[in-house]
């Protein structure tokens, strides 16, 4: 609960910072303009860093805090929360508990502007249909996926009226006290069959489940300037789309791989084998990466480099509903999806710093 209060305090401070910046904007002198710009930059860094720390540590910190509270005079509060946790255990798999207030926090606009992150719409989506968005590439933290689909900072609901996005992430995150509530407030759901089935079959229409298809395996290969996705053997999301009759939408984020530098170990080396073993045990890849420091971009730290991330939402692929799709049908729509994603990449690559000769490598 203290972790959640900390996040709320972050947002409150950022809102206060927004008011201060508005006041400074009215002062025309150069020193005040420079001060305002510097303060705005610090707020952007804080907003990004709080998400990185929350993702890495809030779940563990919430668990330790809950156990510690059982050993203090606050054990009654811990017992009440634990009872609530047990009662609420299946909520993440049943549509979650999103909060428009959290999704519209001022903090997320600073998060967006740090990189900056943009969302580009290429086609309309019908509210009478359900969708599965395939997001590529994973990157280290999937900043583009979170900002575009876990918040309203880039205006998803205005660009796609009637469509409700649900970003899918590791189911293990929803076993963590406090952190699970933080994730659900953004409309984030577990990436498992029960959760996605519920959203696409028992939650009406106008739902868009966003799956980072490459997952942890893809994050091990991400590096600045590298355009590759793990997709050839990822067909489960296509089979699910056919079973539910949900249209497939390819999504590509240019710049997602550029915000951190990573040490990529060669295949069959001891370090690579250790990474893959840990990935199977804990569910996510232990990447060896770094960004810049809090106070200087020339130092190393956890703050990502402020490189632009542009997310392109492609054309939906109409998918029929087949409860037991045969393998050749799954292969057909998987091939259609790969072709659509490749076309999307080729159409927009030169607009975002890539050369005409650059290709999308699919593994």
UniProtKB/TrEMBL annotation:
Its EC number is 2.3.1.-. Pathway: Glycerolipid metabolism; triacylglycerol biosynthesis; Lipid metabolism. It is found in: Cytoplasm, Perinuclear region; Endoplasmic reticulum membrane; Lipid droplet. It comes from the Eukaryota. Pfam families: DAGAT. It catalyses: 1-O-(9Z-octadecenyl)-glycerol + (9Z)-octadecenoyl-CoA = 1-O-(9Z-octadecyl)-3-(9Z-octadecenoyl)-glycerol + CoA; an acyl-CoA + a 1,2-diacyl-sn-glycerol = a triacyl-sn-glycerol + CoA; all-trans-retinol + an acyl-CoA = an all-trans-retinyl ester + CoA; all-trans-retinol + hexadecanoyl-CoA = all-trans-retinyl hexadecanoate + CoA. GO terms for cellular component: endoplasmic reticulum membrane; lipid droplet; perinuclear region of cytoplasm. GO terms for biological process: glycerol metabolic process; triglyceride biosynthetic process. Keywords: Acyltransferase, Cytoplasm, Endoplasmic reticulum, Glycerol metabolism, Lipid biosynthesis, Lipid droplet, Lipid metabolism, Membrane, Signal, Transferase, Transmembrane, Transmembrane helix. It is a multi-pass membrane protein. InterPro entries: DAGAT. Its main location: cytoplasm. One of its GO terms (molecular function) is diacylglycerol O-acyltransferase activity. Residues 1-17 form the signal peptide. CDD domains: LPLAT_MGAT-like (cd07987). Belongs to the diacylglycerol acyltransferase family. PANTHER family: DIACYLGLYCEROL O-ACYLTRANSFERASE (PTHR12317), DIACYLGLYCEROL O-ACYLTRANSFERASE 2 (PTHR12317:SF14). This is Acyltransferase.
């Amino acid at each position: 609960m203290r972790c959640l209060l900390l996040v709320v305090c972050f947002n409150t401070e950022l809102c206060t910072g927004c008011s201060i910046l508005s006041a400074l904007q009215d002062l025309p002198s150069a020193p005040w303009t420079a001060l305002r710009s510097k303060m705005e930059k610090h707020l952007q860094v804080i907003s990004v860093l709080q998400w990185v720390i929350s993702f890495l540590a809030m779940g563990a910190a919430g668990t330790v805090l809950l156990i510690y509270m059982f050993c203090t005079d606050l054990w009654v509060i811990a017992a009440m929360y634990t009872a609530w946790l047990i009662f609420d255990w299946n909520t993440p798999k049943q549509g979650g508990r999103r909060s428009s207030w959290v999704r519209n926090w001022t903090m997320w606009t600073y998060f967006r502007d740090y990189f900056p992150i943009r969302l580009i719409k290429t086609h309309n989506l019908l509210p009478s249909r359900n969708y599965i968005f395939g997001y590529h590439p994973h990157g280290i933290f999937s900043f583009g996926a979170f900002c575009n689909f876990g918040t309203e900072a880039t205006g998803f609901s205005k660009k796609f009226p009637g469509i409700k996005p649900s970003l899918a992430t590791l189911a293990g995150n929803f076993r963590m006290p406090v952190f699970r509530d933080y994730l659900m407030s953004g409309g984030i759901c577990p990436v498992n069959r029960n959760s996605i089935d519920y959203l696409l079959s028992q939650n009406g229409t106008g739902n868009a489940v966003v799956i980072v298809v490459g997952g942890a395996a893809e994050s091990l290969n991400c590096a600045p300037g590298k355009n590759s996705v793990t997709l050839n053997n990822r067909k489960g999301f296509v089979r699910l789309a056919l079973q539910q009759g949900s249209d497939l939408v390819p999504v590509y984020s240019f710049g997602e791989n550029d915000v951190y530098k990573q040490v990529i170990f060669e295949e069959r080396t001891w370090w690579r084998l250790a990474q893959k073993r840990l990935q199977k045990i804990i569910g996510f890849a232990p990447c060896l990466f770094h960004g810049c420091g809090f106070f200087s971009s020339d130092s190393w730290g956890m703050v990502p480099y402020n490189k632009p991330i542009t997310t392109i939402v492609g054309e939906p692929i109409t998918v029929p509903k087949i409860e037991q799709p045969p393998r050749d049908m799954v292969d057909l729509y998987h091939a259609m999806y790969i072709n659509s994603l490749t076309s999307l990449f080729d159409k927009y690559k030169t607009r975002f710093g890539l050369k005409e000769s650059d290709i999308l490598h699919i593994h």
